[in-house]
Predict the 3D structure of the following.
Amino acid sequence: MAKDDALPISGAQKAAIFLMTLGEDSAADVMRHLGPREIQVLGNAMTSVNNINKRQVDGVVEEFVTEVGQQTALGIGNTDYIRTVLVKALGEEKAGSIFDRISMGGTSRGLEQLKWLDGKTVAEMLRTEHPQIIAIVVAYLDPDLSAEVVSELPERLRHDVIMRVATLEGIQPAALKELDEVMERQFSGKQRIKSAAIGGVQAAADILNLLEASVENPLMSQVSEFDSDLAQRIQDLMFTFEDLVGLDDRAMQTLLREIGNDSLVLALKGADAGVREKIFGNLSRRASEMLREDLEGRGPVRVSDVEQAQKEILTTAKRLADEGQIMLAGGGDELI
């Protein structure tokens, strides 16, 4: 077996490979149905795949055909069906929050347009707004984009915004509608807005999980100075790279299938022995040996690159957990 065959290909890379086999027109038709963050992830994956051999392409296509063969059209477009499935999979509280976001996404235009921008641009737009407005927008956006926005804010604003996100208990429909209209005036368009439960301690923890350590650590110190109890509640809900050791083997194997080899090597350069052995133990013997060789052969790397790779893996783990594919242990999530 060739070396590339033994290493995991991430889900985004599989999607990129499959789309590139379709041709430009068909690939464009598919991408029209994707959201802004999905397109960004997919675009990055397309630029990262190289030296893909025929066996890997055949494997991706075969996996797609198998997955499609197991799908049906039952319930598609039925909101009651979607809500019921979400509740059964995630529980009433979490499903309700996600369903609200789905509903909001279908009716909101002003705030929704922000999801197509990069973090720096959004931060520039919000820089002169009141911290409470910034917190509402940050809580509304997906955690990865929110983390980019917080990173680009002036340092004096960061802890204030995170504290407001953590203590946010929902937004009145009128207030959210007014904010949406403000955004609409910058992007054009006019739509009604539906209220949703956004913000809270978990939202703050999700955002902090995705910040670089150089931003996260001083930010948490500032939050702790103002409200030590709130800081502890946020910390309890954060999921760290070391918490991966608490995943069961099946969950770890699911996660590893989504991670590219380069990211894995970088992340493990700064991992403790427990996490390393957990990962080695859930790869095939050949893949494990190759990963050890890559680690030993990799020269010095920047700490910031290691932290970024670990953050990317944690983001993938959180996504899989949100999709119900794995259950996270640690970081406030207890197994029962």
The chain has three domains: 3-69, 108-237, 241-322. Residues 3-69 form one domain. DSSP finds 21 helices and no strands in the chain. Residues 303-322 form the longest helix (20 residues).
